[in-house]
Specification:
ABC transporter involved in vitamin B12 uptake, BtuC, globular
């Protein structure tokens, strides 16, 4: 494995993709640790479809995809948060409606815009090796912001993850920190969607935390184990995709699936 990685990382574009993938894996696991425990993991899937629609619009208009997507995805996450607070529309319904609408808009625009050469598969399943230096800089910058904010507000995120009423009682502004968590999720989706695809990025938010839940006993352990599993699975998937000449995003997700299966089996073993 080490020799394969050494061979791969000799190429600048592969090294760039590798660094971006590590950042995305780390951010996804951190955010996923809270979203999965709050039973809100599907928000990542909904926002990835919103990112797909916004990237499609940006590409057709000749604008920078990531920069164009970020404010739209953040607005969508806040919209879902506010809409889910409406007693007549639950969170799942709000996510499903927005997700389907955004995916339909993106697919329609790309399919009907014959004047622009757009590869639909690269948006749906990602193209990590096509990451430009500009994209890598943006991903590194935004990833650093996500990690820093998560660490700064980790105690508040822990509190609202398990008991919002208790968090309110001890003076935590629940609505503010829910918004912060939604924005962090939006940034993670925005930097990961173009590289891993609208249909795959949400799996990196879900799988590492699910695997960690089979092994951990508290939130801190879950977060540490989830980030470790996420990074290891990315490295293995990245190397495997290079050896097998397979799509990187799909390979990474399959490795995460195997990791979850092994962790689940381990958790069922008698002590």
């Amino acid at each position: 494995m080490l020799s394969i990685l050494t061979e791969m990382l000799q190429y600048d574009f592969i090294l760039r993709a590798f660094i971006v993938g590590i950042i995305i894996s780390l951010c996804s696991a951190l955010i996923g640790s809270s979203l999965v425990l709050r039973k809100q993991s599907m928000i990542g899937d909904g926002l990835s479809h919103v990112a797909f629609g916004s990237v499609a619009i940006a590409t057709i208009l000749g604008l920078a995809p990531i920069e164009f997507s970020i404010p739209i995805v953040i607005a969508a996450s806040i919209f879902i948060l506010r809409l889910s607070q409406n007693s007549k529309i639950n969170g799942d319904a709000a996510i499903a409606a927005l997700s389907a609408s955004a995916l339909a808009i993106g697919t329609f625009l790309i399919s009907t815009n014959h004047g622009t050469n757009i590869d639909l598969n690269s948006y749906l399943f990602g193209s990590i090796l096509a990451v430009s230096q500009h994209d890598a800089i943006i991903c590194f910058f935004l990833g650093a912001i996500v990690i820093a904010i998560f660490l700064i507000f980790r105690r508040q995120i822990f509190a609202i993850t398990f008991d919002e009423l208790f968090a309110k009682a001890i003076g935590i502004k629940v609505s503010v920190h829910n918004t912060i968590l939604a924005i962090l999720c939006s940034l993670t989706i925005a930097i990961g969607m173009r590289t891993l695809g609208a249909l795959l990025i949400s799996s990196l938010i879900i799988f590492p935390c699910l695997s960690a839940l089979q092994l951990s006993k508290n939130f801190r352990q879950n977060t540490i184990i989830a980030t470790t599993i996420s990074i290891i699975c990315f490295i293995i998937g990245f190397a495997a995709s290079y050896m097998l000449n397979a799509p990187t995003g799909a390979t990474v997700v399959l490795v995460n699936l195997v990791a979850f299966t092994l962790c689940w089996i381990y958790s069922k073993l008698p002590e």
